[in-house]
Amino acid sequence: MTMAVDAQHAQKHAQQHAPQHASTAVPLGGSEPLIDPHAHFHTPWTNRGDWQRYNQSRLISGHRMGVRCHVASVLGSWGHTSPTYFASPSDQTHANQAMLALAAHHAPFVKAFVAVNPNFRDHALREIEYGMSQGAVGIKLAAGRRTTDFAVLDAMAEAAAAYGVPVLQHVWQHRRRDWPNQDASDGAELAALAARHPTVTFLLAHIGGGGDWAHTSPAVFDVPNIVMDLSGSGIDRGMMDDALRWIGARRLLWAADLTLCTGLTKLRGLQYTGVSADDIADIRWRNAVRIFPTGTFDAALGAPWTPAVPDALSHAWNGSLHHAPEDQVATNEVDRGGAT
Fold first, then answer.
1. Which residues contact 118 (CB under 8 A, 6 or more apart)?
2. Burial 295-320 (b: 16+ CB within 10 A, else e)
3. Which of 90, 94, 107, 190 has the lowest CB atom count within 10 Å?
4. pTM (predicted TM-score)
5. CATH class of the 32-294 domain in this structure
6. Percent of the chain with pLDDT over 90
7. Whole-angstrom Cα distance, residue 137 to residue 294?
8. Distance set, CA 327 to CA 89, 128, 161 (Å)
9. In this predicted model, what pLDDT tens digit does every residue of 46-62 receive, in sequence order?
């Protein structure tokens, strides 16, 4: 008799404390959608033996947070066979092929940037042309060439204008000197390039990624085609408040870059900045919808979030590539000889 009562009590307790139904469950990052316009993945040719585990950890953790889409790039071999910010043409072609294949495998929850090393100008323009034909939605420029080197960077911006896509530009916040293994730009230097190409949206990367973030917002506030992402491991109190004061919510995009954990911290911090729920929705996802090509996120945003991981995310990409055109592979090897 006692065992029967205990069983009934246990059943009742389980029913009372069962997980929330999918229709009422809320992601860790809150109920509004999230789009991450600054994400990265690894491939079998990069510097991590656990590349597949790393990729899946971002996708699964991102889903738990409520990220509907990751717009991502791969920077060459991430230093394995050529420098991260000065990737060889063949490394960068492999990386872009991998990114396109990964995006196709995890569609519609992953979209691809075409990452390029602008020092190899002709190769970079071919990569952009091919990537756009395969569904890429933006161009990623890292720290391979300073943005005030207009003889090289103008061509990249012109390509972005021709395809109607944004440029995600790696930025060091207030660059006071040259840094090893990169030719980094800061906000003022990006502003000089953006002013030359007013029809192109430039996404200034990771205001929390290193340097003096207080310098950046004043440097770009009067250049309306520059928007900024909140990514980076820095979570200084006042960082978001300062950016909101200078450039406003419609020019800020939530992003995570390499650290989803600090991205979650910034999401929770936004509610203490005094901005409205409407402004927070802009930062979380609506600004990304505005700056990327029309329809980029329709499929990812179309279905309601549920705690269950979608099949498109739960099955890991195995490293298989889409076949690159033979002439593209051949010209990549020719381009190894030097910058153009």
1. 124, 141, 144, 145, 152, 153, 155, 156
2. ebbeebbeeebeeeebeebeebbeee
3. 107
4. 0.88
5. alpha beta
6. 74
7. 10
8. 14, 15, 25
9. 999 999 999 999 999 99
Q: How many other CB atoms sit within 10 Å of the CB of residue 179?
A: 14
Question: Residue 282 half-sphere exposure, CB side, CA atoms within 13 Å?
Answer: 13
Tell how strand 67-73 and strand 110-116 pair up.
Answer: parallel
Non-local CB neighbours of 335 within 8 Å, separated by 6+ positions: 89, 120, 122, 123
pLDDT at 181 over 90: no
In sequence order, what are the residues at sequence separation of 6 or more whose Cβ sits closer than 8 angstroms to the Cβ of residue 43? 51, 74, 94, 95, 98, 102, 319
Q: Which residues contact 30 (CB under 8 A, 6 or more apart)?
A: 66, 267, 284
Q: What is the pLDDT of residues 137-154, one digit of tens each?
A: 999 999 999 999 999 999
Which amino acid would we find at residue 211?
A: G
Is residue 114 within 8 A of residue 131, CB to CB? The reply is yes
Tens digit of pLDDT for each residue in 31-41? 999 999 999 99
Q: Which of 279, 194, 185 shows the shortest CA–CA distance to 240? A: 279
Q: What does the chain come to in residues? A: 340
Note if the bond before 166 is cis, omega within 30 degrees.
no
